[in-house]
Write a structure and sequence with these properties.
InterPro entries: HotDog_dom_sf, MaoC-like_dom, MCH/BMMD. By secondary structure, the protein is of the alpha+beta class. The protein has helices at residues 25-34, 40-43, 45-49, 60-75; strands at residues 14-16, 21-22, 80-90, 100-112, 118-131, 135-149.
């Protein structure tokens, strides 16, 4: 378990996630197949060549899902009860096959549940594609709200210094 308990989240804290992932054509194809999304902009090279993008786009829901997955180890791995919502999803720039995605999460709000047994944490998750090795272009952003476990009595603080 590497996620944070409710008490360990700090409003205003930003976590730069170290993991990155380069998206392949096969990743995009499998995601579209699994979700039954047959949008030609994602799958048909000839169709996509005639659009303003000039090539196939990676499915935006895959990009969002990847950002969540990248963020889990440092935020909610083993400490989450449930994802409660994903709000304000935006895709300001396209993602193409071969783009490498990284993510960061910023804690924007937290509150205890009414019974005091758990906590609700909201994070702004941003996904960027790496361009020319060091430039980072925002490709997806959204609010992720989770129901988080509180630290069990007697458990040590999981944050590292």
């Amino acid at each position: 378990m590497s996620g944070l308990y409710y008490e360990e989240f700090e409003v205003g804290e930003t976590i730069e996630h170290a993991k990155r992932r380069t998206i392949s054509e096969a990743d995009n194809q499998r995601f579209c197949d699994m979700t039954m999304n047959q949008q030609p902009l994602h799958l048909d090279a000839d169709f996509a060549a005639e659009t303003q993008f000039g090539e196939r786009l990676v499915n935006g829901l895959y990009t969002m899902s990847l950002a969540v997955g990248i963020s889990i180890p440092e935020t909610t791995d083993g400490t989450i009860v449930a994802n409660l919502s994903y709000d304000g999803v935006e895709h300001p720039n396209p993602v193409f096959h071969g783009d490498t995605i990284r993510a960061r999460s910023t804690v924007t709000d937290k509150r205890e549940t009414s019974d005091g047994g758990r906590g609700v944490v909201t994070m702004r998750v941003e996904a960027f594609k790496v361009v020319d090795g060091d430039e980072h272009v925002l490709v997806c952003e959204f609010e992720r709200t989770v129901l988080s476990e509180k630290r069990p009595e007697g458990a040590e603080d999981g944050k590292s210094d």
